[in-house]
Amino acid sequence: MADNDGSPQLSELVSFLQTLPEPHILCDRDYRIIAANEAYRANWPDRQEVVGRKCYEVSHRYAVPCDQAGEFCPLQRSLRSGQRERVLHLHHTPQGESFENIELSPIRDASGEIVYYIEKLEPLPGARSQAHAQGLIGRSPAFVRMMEMVARVAPSDAAVLLQGESGTGKELVAGAIHRISKRADQPFVAVDCSGLPETLFESELFGHERGAFTGATARKTGLVEAAAGGTLFLDEVGDIPLSIQVKLLRLLETGTYRRVGSPELRKAEIRIVSATHRPLAEMVEAGSFRQDLFYRLNIFPIFLPPLRERGDDVLLLAEALLARVAGGRKLTLSAAAQAWLVGYAYPGNVRELRNLLERACLLCDGDEIQREHLPAGENAAFSRSTVKFTEKPAPDLRTLARSFAGNRKALAAELGLSERTLYRRLKAAGLS
Ligand SMILES: Nc1ncnc2c1ncn2[C@@H]1O[C@H](COP(=O)(O)OP(=O)(O)OP(=O)(O)O)[C@@H](O)[C@H]1O
């Protein structure tokens, strides 16, 4: 694929691109698309011409390269590293916004200088930025960073530990990891590790033989066996009793387990994804979670951002979830309802947003959800300041209270609280 002088020949590169089954484009160092293969063009209505345009303009509708628009630019990265680079980008495609795995490979001339880039674009299954039947929704930087980790680890067999507050979507992300993995056609089995008594838990997980314990009238297959070849999702893994933790560790280390009541060692070929909202590292310190198991589960940690750190995702999610919970009704959100939703702090994260909308649907007789269909109480400023409040408790309030001495109204305004709430807070802090 080179001229006599050793530099890559454009016509040969273009022919090579055509042989590739996945969508590919060829760009120069100046972001200009100089060729697009058939698989790429097939996605565009009327085979709209993209050659000659800039990649950031076609894929992002940006007027400037991605890195100047606050995103990672694989081309810039590759120029710096001189290597192939991969990123996950949210792209405008003819089918709507979609997460795409981008892989950029530099092509050099005879002198070793990078002259072109081959860019492969593969849609990430199971995630959409917009409303989508059951997929993960989001486009905020915190969400995209999390999805980038998901896209990186999913194709491997590495154990993943999902950490995040309740309702942030850990189970949904576990499902996405499975769907993106090469195990997608095999079972995805979710185990809720909380709330099961120890003996029952062991038999649920590993199965039991007939007569293994009172009431075991028949042999039972466990969830580990049911997940064979696929993914076992251990939800609330921090709740696994210590005695079962040893058995889980053996499963992870040797790929073997025993049914309850059987001496026979059985083989399991599974990928483990686990999730917790509890501080596992602290539990290790406290001795309630085995350190060796923690390391085995935590090969690739992914942190799920709380909704309050996901900015504009709130409205994106609200619209999509509204469509899901509205039972066929076409409902919209009034400006006041939107403002309230954007300002609220969501201690219960996406699950709470979904529940709020479900309740609002039931209260709303018309086709627009109003402020009064959402919970009574203070607005945006209140909720956001509550979060700050819990992060920085009494000392700040004490300082502040002194500098606003006697003027409760001004202090309330400064904190974004109603005077009544401020009064309650001051009283609780012994400052009223
Ligand atoms: N990014 C998202 N896009 C769409 N829906 C979401 C998203 N994240 C969460 N949800 C929805 O929010 C609800 C809670 O999600 P999920 O059960 O996955 O959270 P979780 O973190 O596992 O919660 P818990 O820790 O309480 O088990 C579900 O209805 C899920 O569909």
TrEMBL record:
Name of one Pfam family that matches: Sigma54_activat
Query: Which InterPro entries does the record associate with it?
Result: AAA+_ATPase, AAA_lid_NorR, Homeodomain-like_sf, HTH_Fis, P-loop_NTPase, PAS, PAS-like_dom_sf, PAS_4
Q: What keywords are annotated for this sequence in UniProt? A: ATP-binding, DNA-binding, Nucleotide-binding, Transcription, Transcription regulation
Q: Know the name of this protein?
A: Fis family sigma54 specific transcriptional regulator
Q: Name one GO molecular function term.
A: sequence-specific DNA binding
Keyword ATP-binding part of the UniProt annotation: yes
One BP term from GO: regulation of DNA-templated transcription
Which part of the chain is the Sigma-54 factor interaction domain?
Answer: 136-362
- CDD domains, per this entry? AAA (cd00009), PAS (cd00130)
